[in-house]
Specification:
By secondary structure, the protein is α+β, with helices and mostly antiparallel strands. The protein contains three helices and seven strands; from the N terminus they run βααββββββα. The radius of gyration is 15 Å and the shape is globular.
């Protein structure tokens, strides 16, 4: 099994619109299903709570690693860390990278890549990979609906 997730989607929205949906913490929360406590800042921890039904008990914690305007937004987090009885803080994190480039007809090609699963403890690696792979498929649809329906 490959220890990395890659997805891509062509969005009928300009790069600036997709960038805003990714990096404005309120907009990100709308399509991602999370309430984030404050703006994303490179080098800082982002906190909040998942709002997706059935996962409201899950805390959002991600460290923003890069914000290169209209090109790259990246953060690290603990993949599929949903059990409130488990302390994931001692585990390695994975890296999530959103890359944007000009697509066809003024649209945007959005690529998401999550890497680093090979360092996740063996006992939870397959489930984390499978759940996040499924999750990113859904999130690509969510951001598409978000940016193509709201200017």
């Amino acid at each position: 099994m490959n220890d990395l997730i890659e997805k891509q989607i062509e969005l009928k929205a300009p790069v600036s619109r997709v960038w805003r949906a990714l990096t404005d913490h309120r907009e990100f929360g709308e399509w991602f299903g999370v309430r984030i406590d404050g703006p994303f800042v490179a080098g800082e921890l982002s906190t909040g709570n998942i709002t997706y039904p059935g996962y409201e008990h899950v805390k959002w914690e991600a460290t923003v690693t890069k914000m290169e305007p209209e090109r790259l937004f990246a953060y690290t987090w603990h993949p599929y860390a949903i059990d409130p009885a488990v302390d994931y803080s001692t585990e390695p994190t994975t890296l999530v990278e959103f890359r944007l480039e000009l697509g066809k007809n003024g649209g945007t090609m959005l690529r998401v890549r999550e890497s680093g699963f090979e360092q996740i403890p063996e006992g939870r690696r397959p489930l984390a990979l499978r759940k996040n792979d499924d999750g990113w498929s859904g999130q690509m649809e969510n951001i598409q609906s978000h940016v193509e329906s709201k200017a």
